[in-house]
Amino acid sequence: MGTVRAAASGPGITIRAMQEEDLSAVAAIEVASFSDAWPRSAFAELMPRGYARLRVAVAANGEVCGYCVLLLAGGEGEIANIATHPAWRGRGVGRALLQEALAAADEALAEAIFLEVRESNAAARALYAAQGFVQVGRRRQYYQQPAEDALVMRRARGASAMSPRSADDHASPSPFSR
Questions:
Q1: Is 175 within a domain?
Q2: What CATH number is attached to the domain comprising 139?
Q3: Residue 133 included in any domain
Q4: From CA 60, how far away is CA 1, in angstroms rounded?
Q5: Which residue from 154, 152, 177, 157 is spatially nearest to 167, judged by alpha carbons?
Q6: Number of domains in the chain
Q7: Residue 161 has pLDDT above 70, yes or no
């Protein structure tokens, strides 16, 4: 099932392996967060894959308040999906999930971690930059609803966070952003 870690986001939040019973909550967060949402089946299909690390942040009352999908292969990693329930945004849940994924990637000796983010998602971009990601490319018109470029960001293994404070503690992400 994986390690359960106390998240940096506050008392009573834990990060653990995603389970079958989490999929409805994860799918609901996905739809609330992204205009180009992954279907529930995408998460279910990744769960048993050895290269995929799916984690959820869970509140003390059992509510799933966020999730992260990390893919590891060929000495690299990709944050394929990460989101926080709208009611939990600004409380450090996204930062905690990201930090847990980065620690897992470092433990797996991934030389670099990549992700794509909407150019307009200033909150997510700031969060990623604060965790050592730098922009290395652009995918023109990558997103379709609405049409927008994706910025490709990379973090080298062991890169340190630039700031102890997270952008998701200070800004509201676009409802159409990854």
A1: no
A2: 3.40.630.30
A3: yes
A4: 19
A5: 177
A6: 1
A7: no
